Structure formats: C-alpha cells, structure tokens
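Why should sequence recovery work at all? Because a backbone constrains its sequence more than one might expect. Tight turns favour small or flexible residues, buried strands favour hydrophobic ones, and helices have their own preferences. The token representation captures these environments compactly. In the example below, the structure is given first.
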C-alpha cells in the first residue's frame, strides 16, 4: 500500500502534472480576485496571463500527443530565434513613425474596449468577449494580448511589441512541431541542417512578420493552424484517440474565432486531408481491408461529431455566415479574380521560395513520396478557389495560405538538407542570402511585392514611382506632427455632442490617422466617425450632414482606393457645393505635398441637399437601397425634413 501511494505521488509530481495543477490553482485565484475585487485593474491582465500560459501548455501538450520531442538542440534554436525576434522588433518598431489606422488599429482599439469592459467587472468583461462571437472581428484575441500590453505605454508600437511575448512563444513551439513532424514523415537523415534551415526559413517568411509589424494579431490564428497540422499530418484514424480529438476540436474552433477568413484554411485543409486519407485507405484495402474500413469509419464518425459540436458552439457565427452574402458585399475587394490572385501570390512568395518549392517537388518525384507536397498543393488550391469567390487577398490574409506553403517549403528544406554535402558552400550561401533578404523585406500596408527597403526605394521603373512614393509616406510617416496638430485643433473646437467628418478614407489619410495619432489618448473618439468609401460595406454617410466640420485633403489621395470609390465621388460633389453650405475654418500644410482643409458648416442641411448628394450614388443605391436611400429617408424623417 505504501509503495502504491509513493508511485501515485511521483506520478502527480511530473512536470505535466505540476503545470496542470498550477493552471488549476490559477483558475481558483482568478475566481477569488474577481469576487473580492470585481473592478480591480489587475483582473483582466491576470486573466490574460493565465490564458497565455494555458495556451503555451496546450502547445506543448499537442507535441506530446503527436509524438514530437523537442530536444536540447531544438530548444536552443527556439530560444535563440525568440531572443533575436525581440531585438529585431525592438529595433524595427523604434526606427519608424507609423500611425495605426483601419485594420492596423482594429484590435488595438478592441483592446482598449476590452480593458474598459473588464473595468466594469468580470461579468461585463466576459460578456464583451463572448458577445462578439457572431461578429466578423471577434474579441477572442484580446484575452491573450492584454498581458504584457498593460505594462507598456499602450501605444500601437507597444501593442505590436507585446505580441513577441504573448503570441510568438506558442507559435514558435508549434511551428517547430510542424518542422519536426514533416521531417519524421520524410525520414530526413540530416536532422541538424533540416531543422535549422526549415525552421528559420518559415519563421522569417515576410508575410508572417508583416502581420506582427503592423499590429495585426491575425498571426495568432497560426498557432491553432499549426496545431491542426501537427495533430493530423501522420495520423490515419487507425484507432480512436479522444485526447487528440479534443485538441483538434479546440484548435479548429479557436482558429475560426481568431479571424473568420481562417475558415477557408479549415475547409481547404480538412477536405484535402480527408481526400488523402481516403486515397491511402483505398491502396491499403488491397492489403488489409479491415484496417482500411476502420480508418474511414473512424474518420467519418469524428467528422460528423466534430461538425455537429462546432455548429453548436459557434452557431451565432455560422448563422451569420449562412445568411450574409459575402461575395456580394465584398465584391469591391475582388479586383481581378483568380488571375489577379495567382499574380499576387507569385509576387509575394518570390523567386527564392519558388526555387525551394521546386527542390521539394523534384525530390518528391525522385523518392516517390508525394503525400505531403500533394496535401499542401491541394489545400492551397481549394482555399484559393473558395477565398477568391469572395475577394482577393490583402497581405494579412496571406496567413491563411501559409500552412500549405510551409508544407511545400519544408519538402524543399528536406531536399536541401539531405544533399547539403554536395556544393555545401553554395547551398549554405543560398540559405543565408534568403534569410537576410526575407528579414529585410519592408513591412508596409501597401506591400505587394516582398522586397527590401533598398530595392523599393530605388526601383527603376517610372510607372511605379508614384506608388513607391506613397508607400514610403505610409510606412514611415513624416507628417506625424502635422496630423497631431489637426487632431488638437479639432479637439479644441469641437464641443460636447459636436462632430467632424473626414471625407478622405485612403491608406495615406483617413479618420483613423487623426483618432490614433496621439495614442493612447484619443481626443477625437466619438467625434470623428469612420468615413464612407466601400460599396456594399459602408452606409450613406448621414454623419456628413450632422458634422460641424468637414475635413478634406488636397489633392485627394489615391494610394489604395480606385478613383471610382465612394469617398472620391463625395469629395468631388462637396467641392462643387460647399460654398453654399460651408466656410473655410483652417488649413494645414502636411509637408509632403498634401493640404488638410477644415470647413465649418454654416447652413443647416435640407432635404434638397441630402437628395443632391444621394443622386451621386444612383448606381450604388440601385444595388444596395437599404444602405443608401433607405438610410437617407430614415434620417430625413427623424429630423423632420
């Protein structure tokens, strides 16, 4: 009996047991803090710290379940790369002036809102988190990014930098797991060079870093995408494993909650994975029919149960996806369909990485090991077709394709590592050059081609000169003090209940730049609404008629939107009519060829004025009357006009 107790005690004191017990105790501590100090400032950061610790523990548990072991070499590489990332982000963020707006301020603003919600108590805070699960942008990520963000100056740059501590560790662990798992499946013999080359290549891929540098924690979703890969790549459903299934279910739900468009990765990967398993089972049936049937039966059983549970858990989101016509509402972002999408991918992946993919495909044919490259290619094709039905990708949406590309990259890294002794200096030089090139790629909202700063700034083509100029102005602002001056003028001249409206809604200048140029202070919060620029997404702007001041930019910037977008039309009509309704209040030279002008309304809006502006958008009104004429009529009726 005594020996049995001793054995049980030893088992309970394993590192896994200790970590699990610590997380359990953490839940009790959080419950006590929430009950005793419901409005305490420490509660939300403690919740966030617990979530990050649980996430890291879960990442390690995924490796354990999948049979992946991180030895001393792997851990040393991870620690070294993480330390290098800390230095890189500290240097890169500190050498630029970037004003966070649009998607680049989306989660930063959500973080502020989450802090305010939790300041009202745990119930209000968790209601804010869980109440967003039907939205396109959920508040799920804010649970993990509050700590250590709360310890910083709470600016956009500090939000980006804090992700190196709360996102990157778990992501690196699971990325290492993917590298090792692929190496196991390809039976790589030269594990040293394979892991070093493969892991460093994936970690420095520009469009992985892009999201982090622009304070878009969309890369958080890759933690769960990589977990799905590690758990499934060599699993063939020969036996039921409830623990693995639970982790798969949680990872799938989490990746969808991170960003809605990760659903295209989920559908593409699981479809390709099931297809691969069915093909392999058909081949196996020639040898062992019973085992092949068991594989397929277990796959179908798990798939049906997981689908039912997923729909039940995420029903608000599923219901909105089924009811909302994204292909219609997002048609503005579909700028060329599949041909344009393939062109974008070619530019973003780049020649150096295509060479790596070519090495992997050639090696797969030579060794007759097609499964992994085929899985990656199939998942990429399915996700591309599905996503491009709705819109073309921006740089941050490239993240949903990275798992597929990374499988192809790793096949190439395996081929390079296995033949490293032949022309070793050339191959190591190619690897080193690729890393330097990747780390040097400019992280800009306008990035289309993955190129370093020195190449972009000295690009020889005259046709790209204007784009390069605007890219530089957007990436590293030289007008920060001028933006702050405009913001301060408006905050002084706007009284309680008064608002301003900025017509321009462009990557170079939009209302978000004025609202966020003084972070963490937001003196124009609630006083400067978002502008109107995207058909099918933005309603006809009645706030334009309510505003005390209207802000224009000359010349009208077109760094991102086409000359047919809504803001450009509104600006042209305002220039035609403003002398009868507004007077000049102030001008600001931005020092880069642009001028901000503030116009004060001197005549109350009339039905005739509203209808005159509405007729500018007759084409859009015919397509979306509920967003144009119906909105205008409702406003006019409410104001007795």
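From this structural description, the recovered sequence reads:
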């Amino acid at each position: 009996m005594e020996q049995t107790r001793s054995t049980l005690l030893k088992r309970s004191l394993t590192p896994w047991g200790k970590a699990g017990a610590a997380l359990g105790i953490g839940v009790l501590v959080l419950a006590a803090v929430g009950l005793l100090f419901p409005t305490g400032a420490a509660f939300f950061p403690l919740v966030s710290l617990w979530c990050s610790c649980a996430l890291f523990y879960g990442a390690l548990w995924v490796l354990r379940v999948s049979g992946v072991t991180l030895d001393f070499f792997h851990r040393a590489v991870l620690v070294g790369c993480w330390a290098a990332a800390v230095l890189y982000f500290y240097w890169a963020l500190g050498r630029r002036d970037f004003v966070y707006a649009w998607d680049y301020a989306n989660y930063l603003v959500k973080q502020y809102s989450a802090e305010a919600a939790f300041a009202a108590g745990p119930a209000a805070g968790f209601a804010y988190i869980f109440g967003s699960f039907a939205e396109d942008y959920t508040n799920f990520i804010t649970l993990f990014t509050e700590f250590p963000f709360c310890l910083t100056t709470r600016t956009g740059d500090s939000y980006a930098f804090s992700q190196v501590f709360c996102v990157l560790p778990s992501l690196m662990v699971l990325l290492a797991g993917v590298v090792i798992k692929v190496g196991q499946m390809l039976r790589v013999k030269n594990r040293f060079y394979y892991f070093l080359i493969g892991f460093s290549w994936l970690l420095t891929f520009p469009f992985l870093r892009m999201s982090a540098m622009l304070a878009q924690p969309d890369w958080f979703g890759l933690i769960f995408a990589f977990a799905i890969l590690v758990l499934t790549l060599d699993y063939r459903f020969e036996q039921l494993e409830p623990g693995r299934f639970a982790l798969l279910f949680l990872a799938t739900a989490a990746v969808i909650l991170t960003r809605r468009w990760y659903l295209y990765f989920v559908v593409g990967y699981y479809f390709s994975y099931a297809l691969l398993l069915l093909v392999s089972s058909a081949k196996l049936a020639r040898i062992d029919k019973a085992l092949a049937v068991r594989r397929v039966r277990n796959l179908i059983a798990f798939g049906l149960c997981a689908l039912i549970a997923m729909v039940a858990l995420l029903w608000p989101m599923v219901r909105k996806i089924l009811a909302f016509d994204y292909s219609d509402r997002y048609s503005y972002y579909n700028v060329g369909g599949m041909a344009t999408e393939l062109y974008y991918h070619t530019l973003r992946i780049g020649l150096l990485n295509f060479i790596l993919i070519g090495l992997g495909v050639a090696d797969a044919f030579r060794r007759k090991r097609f499964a992994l490259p085929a899985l990656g290619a199939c998942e990429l094709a399915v996700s591309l077709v599905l996503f491009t039905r709705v819109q073309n990708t921006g740089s941050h949406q490239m993240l949903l394709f990275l798992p597929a590309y990374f499988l192809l990259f790793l096949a190439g890294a395996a081929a390079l590592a296995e033949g490293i002794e032949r022309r070793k200096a050339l191959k190591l030089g190619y690897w080193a050059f690729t890393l330097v090139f990747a780390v040097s790629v400019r992280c800009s909202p306008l990035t289309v081609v993955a190129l370093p700063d020195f190449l972009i700034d000295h690009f020889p083509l005259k046709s790209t000169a204007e784009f390069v100029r605007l890219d530089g102005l957007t990436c590293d602002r030289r007008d920060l003090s001028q933006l702050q001056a405009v913001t301060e003028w408006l905050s002084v001249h706007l009284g309680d209940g008064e608002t301003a409206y900025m017509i321009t809604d462009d990557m170079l200048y939009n209302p978000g730049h004025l609202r966020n140029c003084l972070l963490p202070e937001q003196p124009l919060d609630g006083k400067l609404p978002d502008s109107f620029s995207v058909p099918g997404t933005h309603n006809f702007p009645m706030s334009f008629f309510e505003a005390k001041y209207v802000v224009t930019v000359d010349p009208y910037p077109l760094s991102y939107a086409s000359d047919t977008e809504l803001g450009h039309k509104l600006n042209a009509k305002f220039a035609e009519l403003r002398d009868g309704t507004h007077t000049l209040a102030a001008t600001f030279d931005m020092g880069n060829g642009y001028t901000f002008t503030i116009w004060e309304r001197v005549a109350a809006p009339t039905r005739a004025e509203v209808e005159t502006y509405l007729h500018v958008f007759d084409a859009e009104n015919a397509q979306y009357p509920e967003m144009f004429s119906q909105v205008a009529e409702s406003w006019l009726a409410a104001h007795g006009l």
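A few observations help interpret the result. The chain has 30 helices and four strands.
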